[in-house]
Fold:
Amino acid sequence: MPEDKLRLLLIEDNPTDAELLLLELERSGYQFITRRVETREEIENALRSETFDLIISDYSLPGYNGRAALNLVKHLGLGTPFIMVSGAIGEDTAVDIFRDGASDYLLKSSLTRLPAIVDRTLREFAAHREKQRAEQLEKILFQVSQAANRAVSLMDFFQEIHQALRQIMHAENFYIALVDSQKGLLTFPYFVDKYDTAPTPIRPRRGMTEYVLRTGQPMLVTPEIFNELREKGEVDSYGTPSLDWVGVPLKIGDQAVGVMVVQTYDEGIRYTDKDLQVLEFITDQVELVIQRKLALDQMRESEAKFSLFMENLPLQGFITDDRGHLVYANREYKNQAGREDVVGKTYFELFPPEVAKIMASDDQRALMEGVVQRTASLRLSNGVRTYETIKFPIPSSDGNELIGGIVWDITERIRAENLARQAAEELASAYDATLEGWSHALEIREKETAGHSMRVVEMTMRLARAMGISDEQLVHVRRGAILHDIGKMGIPDSILLKPGPLTAEEWLIMRQHPLYAYDLLAPIKFLAPALDIPYTHHERWNGTGYPRGLKGREIPLAGRIFAVVDVWDALNSERPYRPAWPQQAVREFIIQEAGRLFDPDVVRVFLALLDDPEWSRLTNKGK
Structure:
């Protein structure tokens, strides 16, 4: 027994007959929303303004008849099932009625048969409509596929989609919205509506279109559903309120990039889930065209950017095929070649043989190895020039192998680098000469330690190399060793040159010389990296040194290295207040103090160096 109310157009001039007919249907469980009409004008208005599931018509009407009403239904192309009812009807008339397209006929004296006739008619019509709908959907899909293949623009394609939809559903009001992700706007490339004009690109709001974009779900929205969404704060109303609204998301991958919508404003035109399915049915083709169009737009934009970039690049940029023919060359390349007609030419047509051979060889290397870089100096008419070249393979969709290349003249850069390097070396040499002058001045002042500085510098450098210090850091180690006692410039002569032992108060002053060294050198950016030795060479492994009492690896490695060398040289040298120690005694002292005064790792490497004959030369040098 049917549960949903059906929309019935009842063409009957006799209210009593109409009541009896409806009563018979209600007894069988049918529920109708019925509109009763009598005249031709009323019939035509009803058919043009509303959609009906069934038409039941009396054959005889005042000034009109049921057969004329049936022909009107056919003329309007509605296809609505039509049952004729009459008080008396002949066989010939019945045949004519069926020929005109009636679903069935019934005598008023047999109204008890009406429910069965209605049931059969609706079932047959539903089956016929489903078959017809399937055929229409197949036809529409074919039309959409054809449109997708021949579409020159999205506008043309959307227009054909609209026309196809109108063949199977009410689609007078139809639009497509797309997201412009770069600008953050919602655009409406196709918009046909009974009341509203196409919106200009807008920032996404809280309309139904944006709701489908957010959720990614197809929606059939009735007034009740819309009000519910609005009460929840999910959507707001924009434009002329529609009655039913159907929208499906258009996706690329999992990302919704647009929405396809139909809507109706008329009470007599309502949408169902089948209308939603129609839109969903063609989304694949629409999405494919949109994706293809977006990809094409991106490719064109990319090509335009590439062209703009390459043409304004102050370097030579070019692309060749695997046979060495140029397929692209930028403005700078043509300028260097001295001609415009370079595309299609080979290296051997454009450059001297020795240059062409190198370039062709690099092409093949790039195809086999990937990125290839070369620096080459060439003797040209304007002198020797140096060029940097990078070659790299470029994937191609047609399977052909391409090689990209960039060439730039680095002659002036190399010349500038050489000048800068020479200036830096000269400056560094001047600095080092100044440092050695400072050290020598200190030796002159402190006569009893003459030669000490140069000896400890050489020994420190040897030990530092053996400890694995990099060449870059060795520069600062050397400067630090030269300046290790520069802080003594701040010690009074009465203390620095005193021939005998220092008093406790004098030792306090003497121990300030690492701090004086820090104050002197730290502000000089060039010498700041060399501070480790002047500042920390009197620190001791067990923390008993000065000026800060650092211990263990808190002491920089350069300071730990120099501490061993400094003590070795000092004990091996004569002083006014004591003779030089025997080397074996100094050796035993350093071994004994490893792990207490000295870093045991440094001592281990140092002892290995003592067996080197060259070390003995350094130890005695200048004594």
Summary: Residues 429-620 form a domain with the Hypothetical protein af1432 fold (CATH 1.10.3210.10). The chain has four domains: 6-133, 151-298, 314-409, 429-620. The chain has a mean pLDDT of 84.
